[in-house]
Amino acid sequence: MAVKIRLKRIGAKNTPIYRVVVADGRSPRDGKFIEEIGTYQPLKKDNNFTLKLDRAEHWIKNGAQPSETVASFIKKARKTAPAPAPAAA
């Protein structure tokens, strides 16, 4: 089973809104999915996506393939994510 991280359209006509979902590659674009990990609003100017970066990295580590658009969201989210605090000894 090839798992993909991709967009699922939920918006109305001429008002696109997408959910970032983890889905089986064989399922249709707006069909069944495993987990929802974010949203994307292309008509909004700034800060137009949300992403649970920890869940996205979990799925990528387990073999999921992100689409080009989702890969760009992950890259942007990694840049803006705060650096992890150093472990106390």
Keywords:
alpha+beta; flat
What features would you describe in this structure?
- By secondary structure, this protein is an alpha+beta fold.
- The chain has helices spanning 53-61, 68-80; strands spanning 3-9, 18-24, 35-40, 49-51, 65-66.
- A five-stranded mixed sheet has the order 4-3-2-1-5.
Topology:
Blueprint lengths: L2 E7 L8 E7 L10 E6 L8 E3 L1 H9 L3 E2 L1 H13 L9
Parallel strand pairs: 1-5
Antiparallel strand pairs: 1-2, 2-3, 3-4
- Cα-atom radius of gyration: 14 Å
Give the termini separation: 42 Å
Oligomeric state of shown chains: single chain
Strand content: 25-35%
Largest sheet: 5 strands, mixed
Helix-strand string: EEEEHEH
Work out the helicity level.
Answer: 10-25%
**Which consecutive residue ranges, at least 5 long each, have pLDDT under 50?**
none
Overall pLDDT metric: 89
Morphology call? flat
**Spatial sequence of strands, sheet with the most strands:** 4-3-2-1-5
Give a count of the beta strands, DSSP E runs of length 2 or more.
5
Tally of separate helices: 2
Helix/strand/pairing class, anyone? alpha+beta
Task: Offer a quick outline of the entry.
The chain is α+β, with helices and mostly antiparallel strands.
